[in-house]
Amino acid sequence: MKKAYIGIDKKLARWGWIFITPSLLFFSLFSFYPILNAAYTSFFRKNILSLKPPTFTGLKNYIYLLKSPDFWNSIRATFVFTLGTFIPLVVFSLLLAVMILLVNKKSQKYLQLAYYAPAVLSSVVAAVIWLSIFNPRGLGNQWLNFFMNTPGIDHQWLANSFMVQFSTILVYFWKYIGYFVVIFIAGLSAIPGSLYEAARIDGADNWQSFWRITFPLLQPTVVLVSVMSMLQCLKTFSTQYLFVQSGSPQAPINVITLNIYNTGIRDHQIGRSSAMSIILFLIMLFFTWFQFKASKADSVSY
Amino acid sequence: MIRTRLDSPGKSTLSPISILIHLLLLGALIFTLIPILFMFTASMMPRKDILKMPYRWIPQGFEVQNFIKAIAGNDGSFIFIRNYINSILVSGIVTFSTVLLASLTGYGLAKFKFKGRNFVFLAIMATMMIPFEAIMIPLYLVTTKLHLQNSYGGLTLPFLVNAFGVFMMRQYLLPFPDEFLDATRIDGAGEIRIFWHVVLPNCAPAIATLSILTFRSQWDNLLWPLLIAQSEKMKTLPLYIVKFAAEKYTDEGAMMAVAVLASIPMLVLFFTMSNYFVSGASVFSSRKG
């Protein structure tokens, strides 16, 4: 009796392994191996086209990068873009989510869908639409001139180095705002209504319930959304690539992924671009770790 | 829900705060929808109308020329059609394999007890922290070594499954009753049969959500095809758009026509399955830039 039972257990364990093996092989080949390989390659001087075997150079690639103004410019561009995008994204999506929940139920669903619509389009399409809006004779100038009462002025959305950074931020903000609104609404709806009833019985008014209940209980969602949007911003590529291809100056928006691509694929400097990839990886790892810590410290049970 | 919490009963809906809220929501609505509306209207207008001030939101006619240019391309090669089919094929293959492998793995991790299960799960979750951008160079080297550039194999290989999909399917299957599985086992069903006929059909909502997320992320993928597809024939839609935009920067109508054509599959999906899009977003996905 006992023996048969163990047999079934073992058999099931074997099936468990059978079910997970294909994915496990996949992840080993296409995630773990490449990241180790990238780390390894980053210590070599390696050129795709050259037939010479790569030479070990230790930390030279990293030292080169740390001394390279071009690399620091990428770090700057990436952080300007990330900070400029994720802070307004979090603030405005939270604001919109709270406001959506204040209107009647029927409009809530349609509003969510309407705000979400840009996220459905692909990022290249988003960039192309805005490329036309930012045309010197396009809608961007028309609207801005209308609101600022400055007729006939070209704001150089895609040419001026400040404006081109702002333009990429605007595209990204537009595309992702609805996405985060949906997440915030999910977070807000997860707060049990009984807490509010209890507060009301205790005599709390609306402002008090918001600041004492909603706000603290929503903090994990805020942290999550912040880090998620931050990680996404750090990886941005499509908008910047398309803008540069269409004639915008590269330097202001030469984000780190664009630099990795150009260094590795266009300039064939595999070692150097691997080192850059590892630095990007470490930056993102830091923020993920930070998220983990922050969400643990904030986690509440109700 | 919040409505009952924050609105004190009996408050008139026309209070200044309520008006302000509605105005702000309306402003945000205009901000998100106007560019999409612009895409559609401009795709139907001749250039002189697009740049007219003020912009006329209702097209006077339908400028077929824009769509002809979009499909024929800059050189009249009609490579657009091939690139479109490539995008559908690549997104389709990746979606199919992601759903299959993620549900297999998710099921294995959720419903079978074996040594090292938690370690395997954590290891798979750890890959979520590896951004694609950090491993694209080694992936590119592997793919070129295997001579898979300019092939569907090369375009799809790195995306056949992802950690997020595994996570999602596992979470979905965790509450699935073990007794039910055991009962079918006692009835003599094999494990593969159970997976195919019992587990998969019960995962339909999760599979729909995962399919949409995966399809969209592939439809959107620019970076990897940029590395792998050099030949015009193997390029995907995003690459076509970039090239078209770079060369036809001044022809807004044609550019918007390309954008419309590229968006149609996603918009159709969105209008028919919007619930899955929205639920996909709230399953805290941390993918895609």
Q: How would you sum up this structure in a few lines?
A:
The complex is a heterodimer of chains A (302) and B (289). With 302 residues, chain A is mainly α.
Describe this entry's structure for a reader.
The complex is a heterodimer of chains A (302) and B (289). Helices cover 77% and strands 1% of the residues of chain A. Chain A has a single domain (77-295), classed as MetI-like (MetI-like fold, Orthogonal Bundle), CATH 1.10.3720.10. The mean pLDDT of chain A is 87. Chain A has 302 residues and is an all-alpha fold. Chain A has twelve helices and two strands. The longest helix of chain A is centred in the N-terminal third of the chain and has 40 residues, at 2-41. Chain A has a two-stranded antiparallel sheet. The two termini of chain A are 45 Å apart. The radius of gyration of chain A is 25 Å and the shape is globular. With 289 residues, chain B is an all-alpha fold. Chain B has a domain at 75-246: MetI-like fold (Orthogonal Bundle). Chain B contains 16 helices and no strands. Chain B has helices at 2-6, 16-43, 47-50, 64-72, 79-111, 117-126, 132-145, 152-156, 163-173, 178-186, 191-202, 204-219, 223-228, 237-247, 252-272, 274-282. In chain B, helix 12 packs across helix 16 (274-282). The longest helix of chain B has 33 residues, at 79-111. Chain B is globular and about 70 Å long. The relative contact order of chain B is 0.14. Chains A and B meet through helix 1, helix 3, helix 4, helix 5 and helix 7 of A and helix 1, helix 2, helix 5, helix 6 and helix 7 of B.
